[in-house]
Amino acid sequence: MMKGKSPPKKTEKEKGEPEQEARSTTCSFSWGKLVEMKANKVQFLAGDGYKRLQIVEADTKTKSIHMICELGKITWPLRFDKLEEIHQKVHAGEVILIPYEIDRLTPTWGNFITGLLRYLGCNSQGPSEGLQELLPGAGARTEKKG
Questions:
Q1: How far apart are CA 88 and CA 8, in angstroms?
Q2: 137: which of 7, 41, 65, 146 is 20 to 30 A away, CA to CA?
Q3: Which of these, 108, 106, 48, lies nearest to 81 by C-alpha position?
Q4: How many of the other CB atoms lie within 10 Å of CB of 117?
């Protein structure tokens, strides 16, 4: 390297890559994050990937949240301790983060909780990996006879 010349500057893409990787592997789940999402009116997709959701109330007294879907329907309260219990089971590998599995723990909440936890970065495994565990033959290729 010649004297007086500084090393080449990193492009925006190069600067963002490590941060992107760190963001995708870290989980930002906390009560404070849910309150922040409510304050900033953050929208996220439900577990099915179609319905937009938003936290409209975060009650600090009862530590519960209410969500609203794009149709304007507001949910009944979801207690943070129940959400935290599911979050821990997902990270421990006891539960796969898909709506069906979450519904078994908290009926009718599977789609909403799955979307929220995925938004927060809790999806430790890809969706196809989780389905392959449920359906052992799901990952195998099938050939047409004929």
A1: 44
A2: 146
A3: 106
A4: 23
| 64-69/43-45 β-pairing | unpaired
Q: Give domain limits for the chain.
A: 28-129
E strand or H helix at 53, and its extent?
A: strand 52-59
Beta bridge partners of 123: none
Query: Letter for the amino acid at 109?
Result: W
Report CA Rg, the chain. Answer: 20
Answer yes or no: pTM beyond 0.70.
Answer: no
Task: Centre a 10 Å sphere on the Cβ of residue 115 and count the other Cβ atoms it contains.
Answer: 24
Between β-strands 52-59 and 78-79, what pairing exists: parallel, antiparallel or unpaired? unpaired
Helices (H), 54-98: 80-92
Given this model, what pLDDT does residue 88 score? 94
Residues 6+ apart with CB under 8 A from 23: 121
Instruction: Give the Å distances, CA to CA, from 74 to 6, 84, 95, 98.
Output: 56, 21, 26, 22
